[in-house]
Structure formats: C-alpha cells, structure tokens
Input
Amino acid sequence: MEVHAAITVRGLVQGVGYRWFVNHHAVQLGLKGVVRNNYDGTVSVEVEGDRSLVEELLQQLKLGPRSAQVNDLRVEWSEPKNLFLGFSIK
Output
C-alpha cells in the first residue's frame, strides 16, 4: 500500500550529515520525497512509497549517522500526494 509520511526528527541532527544519510537510505529503498533542515534545529522528511519500505526507512532514521543523536521522531501518515519525482535534499 502506497503512503505519504511527514516526519519530524529532533535531536542532534543538523551539521552531522543527517540529510545525506536520509537521502542515501531513501534512494536505496526506491522512495520519493524530500529532506530539509528547519530553523528550530529539527529535520523534516516527506516521503512516499510502499508502507513497508517507509517503515524500513523510519528504523534507519531512528539510528541516524554515527555523529547524530536522535531524541524524538514524529510521523504523520496520509494518502500519497504524488508530488515527488525522486528523492532530494533541500
């Protein structure tokens, strides 16, 4: 089942290669979407694809790269919006 997930990641997730980490894993899983830094120090991920693959990405996001420290991960599920052609870093 195709889904859209809007994810907010809190912790030490900026300046540690977190967006590149997200991009790498999302592309490997064949997911579409975007990852961006927010002014409040969080990282936002919008991702679309098969729910099982999105859940696999979520497991990776909880870990992050070695230098990151993920304290909290919030997910809002919805129907896919089909806004993305691939995965990108903003």
Observations:
- The mean pLDDT is 97.
